[in-house]
Amino acid sequence: MASDTLRAPARAAEMTAAVDPAAPILLFDSGVGGLTVLDEVRRALPDAPIIYAADTAGLPYGTKTEAQVAARVAGLLGRMTERLRPRLVCIACNTASTIALGMVREVLEVPIVGTVPAIKPAAEMTRTGVIGLLGTEATIRQLYVDRLEQEFAADKRLLRYGAPGLVEAAEAKLRGEPVDPAIIRDAAHALRSQPDGDRIDTVVLACTHFPLVETELAEAFGPEVRFVHGAQGIARQVSRLVAGQEYSRQAADLALFTGQGELPGAYAEQLARYGLLRIERF
User: Fold this and answer.
1) 232 φ, ψ (degrees, to nearest 5)
2) What are the sequence ranges of the domains in the chain?
3) Could you give the CA distance from residue 68 to residue 179 in angstroms, rounded to a whole number?
4) Cβ atoms 184, 222 nearer than 8 A
5) Percentage with pLDDT > 70 across the chain
């Protein structure tokens, strides 16, 4: 199994029989960062109906407490699975996964795939032995990240930085707005300025939003730095859990946004590029 996903229970892997062909795969994130995961899932499973759910009313997760994130994610996914009847739920958010995945799996009778920082592949890639990790403030302080470091990078140096500004930059970029270069520079400087930071050659993008601004980050870090994230591994795990199932897309794939007010029309063009041709409120 890929190192950048969390293992689903055995009972979830067995739930492949009698699945409604029209049942969607539900991808859930705090915002639009999970579209980087959707892109890989779409490549792996082009015929699968998909609903993408963005909890924009709760954005950002990274500055919330663990209790707030756990309660919000479990509550929302409970209501969404009851209404939408997905064949599988993918929590395409590092913060939500590292905090709430266990709770969600206890209460939902549907296969769940989570997202965790891709520390194992980064440890295999690094040549200098110094790895940078960019995530939200909530993600980088989790014990789960400590365990990943101890298991896969104990002989490496892992430098962490919580960069909430990158979430805002990614959201702005998807809306077609300019990315503030100061946000990008600050994130790179925050890692580089730590002890041994000048030796970083691999950076883990531990938030699904961050690959949306990978081009800007690459310019800030320089050509000697490589980036790694978990989208491909997540797609492989999703594919494994739905192997052998039939698909019937009866309507255009759907993007759901939480909250009140007007739907975020600024995202419409980009959402269409990801195959999400309908936008609704949840």
Assistant:
1) -65, -40
2) 23-115+232-281, 119-229
3) 29
4) no
5) 93
Considering the domain 23-115+232-281, what is its CATH architecture? 3-Layer(aba) Sandwich (3.40)
- H helices, E strands: number in the chain: 12, 10
Q: Report DSSP state, residue 109.
A: -
Quote the pTM value.
Answer: 0.88
What tokens appear for 48 in the block? Answer: 């699968």
Q: Are 202 and 237 in contact (CB under 8 A)?
A: no
119-229, CATH topology level: Rossmann fold (3.40.50)
CB 159 within 8 A of CB 225: no
- Residues near 242 by beta carbon (within 8 Å), at least 6 away in sequence: 16, 19, 25, 45, 48, 87, 88, 111
Average pLDDT over residues 163-188: 92
Both structure tokens of 151: 């298991």
**Tokens 């961050």, located at residue:** 210
At residue 6, the pLDDT reads 46
| Per-residue b or e along 71-98, where b marks 16 or more CB atoms closer than 10 Å to that residue's CB | ebbbebbeebbeebebbbbbbbbbbbbb
- Catalytic residue set: 93, 207
- Same fold across 23-115+232-281 and 119-229: yes
